[in-house]
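Hi all, long-time lurker, first post. I run a small reading group and we've been trying to get comfortable going from sequence to structure in the token notation. Rather than ask abstract questions, I figured I'd post a concrete chain and ask someone more experienced to write out its structure so we can walk through it together at our next meeting. Sequence below, copied exactly:
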Amino acid sequence: MKKAAIALCLLAALLLTGCGGKVPKNPVHSVGDIAGKTVGVLEGSVSPAYLEGAGRVAKYASAGTMLGDVKNAALDCAVLDKAVYEKAKTRGVRALREPLVDKTFHIAIAWENPDLVKAVNGALAKLAEAGYLDALERAYLLGEAMPQAPQAEKVSGTLTLAVTAEFPPYSYFDENGEVAGMDIDIARAVCNLLGADLEIKVIRPDELLTNVQYGKVDLAMGGLTPPDDEGGSIVQYTKAYTRCVQVVVVRRK
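-- Answer (accepted) --
Happy to help. Here is the structure in token form:
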């Protein structure tokens, strides 16, 4: 009887230590460690676009659930927008000091249209001053209420925008098959201020800039950032309309 009790105690100890009682140490200490790892991302986020080298990408509907799975080692790490992480902070996890992505997004316009660049920059400045750009970002990333866009007083033309519709939450197809997203809303608000209708053209990511260069569209949006030497670019860029910061979240131990 005594031997049986001892055996049960040993079995219980083995189960606790060998079947999840002890969480393994954090395997991700830098952005370079993501390669080959299991990474969590949020559904409808831009994060997967920057995770080509990951071993497996698991999608989550909830930031809290995802960070909990980082903590209990179901995930090696998670990648999400910095603002979302700060809102859903979970004990037992931390963000690496070095972000995976930290870049500003801009609108591409042909070199032949300097007046359009000036007009769009003016409209973006007005939207920023009114708080529209910040409020729109919080609506898409944090689920806050959608801000009201300025309405066009008089329409005197049309501007064509090229997007990929493969870059959520900036551009994507909604449940009705319509192109939607933060970029679409910003472009429409800009057009309203300029007194223009917005026409949307969905194209491949590698054709965004050439469509602008050859005058097939007026504008292009979709994670576009000017090169260090913008003078050598085939297009010109407006001022930034948003900043994308993607952080890598890992276990504390």
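A couple of things your group might point at:
Residues 2-99 form a domain with the D-Maltodextrin-Binding Protein; domain 2 fold (CATH 3.40.190.10).
The longest strand covers residues 242-251.
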